[in-house]
Amino acid sequence: MVGRFVETLELYGRLSDADREAVAALPGAVRRFEAGEDIVSEGDAPSQCRLLLSGLAFRHKTLRDGRRQIMSFHVPGEICDLEGLLLAMDHSVTALSRADVSFIPHAAMEALLDGHPQVAKALWRTELVENAVAREWMVGMGRRSAYARIAHLFCEMYARLRAIGLVEGARCWFPITQTHLSDALGLSVVHTNRVLQALRGEGLLSFRGGMLTVHDWQGLKAAGEFDASYLHLKADPV
Amino acid sequence: MNLILQPVMVDTGEEGEACLVFAEGWLVAVLVRLSDNHAGAEGFWFLEKGFGRLDCPDPPSFSDLECAQQWIREHLEIHRPPRWPGDQGHT
User: Fold this and answer.
1) pLDDT of residue A3
2) What is the largest CA-CA distance in chain A?
């Protein structure tokens, strides 16, 4: 089962009918993970690609005393451990919400990539975009205010979820806690909470029970200094 | 170690109740009282800013000023340099 994988690849490259059929025919056993459960752990040497079918996940490293840095969030249709094809995992990926994950054997993925260069290119682009996202986060943590960082992250997730059809009426399911936000953006929970109150107070968004509602997209973009070009999506949400 | 707390108002966008913490005459921390915007931690004292050895990536909150002072003392003692400014030959 490959869920939205074909659609995700098509965000990043043109596939032929044969490419689509080959992707759809990938074998994959599905396993369900509960929120907080590791989908793949630091030190693992995977023999399968873990494709997120539903739910969200985050990539992170955790220090010995429990301090954690979240490096990115992942949405359905993305492979959580593509680097596992070539390297052991140097970080972990954990389910943010309940998540269904398809385990695709590396041999099947390698055969697909060998036989379908357009699929390989699209997948390569997804990795390049992930690097672009990491650069943008680095800019944020190094140079943006707490206010802009949080607004930027919400813009990013909103744009990405919208691109795969998971925004309905300016609302999307993004079940992060203030602790996740703090760990992603290098902020204290207190500062994160203050900024959330400010963004709400300015009427830009509401964020309750894991549901993000964007009330003023242009205002939120301005608050986050957000320019979606680094996501290389086909269209910026309007 | 003698700590002196000086009440101030700090512009954090909240109620502003805060205090400067001085150790041996040096400003080492700013503690801010959390408003009821912080469900579960309202009334706690947050280490808004720690200077020098109290500058940490995960600033803690304390249930009262006594706890905050104890933590500050412990941190300053643990990381005490060979010569604290104003010390008489402490090693």
Assistant:
1) 84
2) 53
What one-letter code names the amino acid at A75? V
Structural domain including B37 reads 3-78
Instruction: Using the predicted structure, report yes or no on whether residue A118 has a pLDDT greater than 50.
Output: yes
DSSP-derived 3-state class of residue B80: coil
Does residue A109 share a domain with residue A29?
yes
> What pLDDT band is residue A236 in, cutting at 50, 70 and 90?
very low
Name the residue among A186, A188, A193 with its Cβ closest to that of B37: A193
Q: Is residue B62 in a domain?
A: yes
* A200-209, B21-30, B33-42, B74-83: least confident range: B74-83
- How many structural domains does chain B have? 1
Q: Are residues A9 and A123 in the same domain?
A: yes
* CA atoms of B20 and B13, how far apart (whole Å): 18
Find chain A residues with C-beta within 8 A of B34's C-beta. 190
Residues of A in contact with B68 (CB under 8 A): none
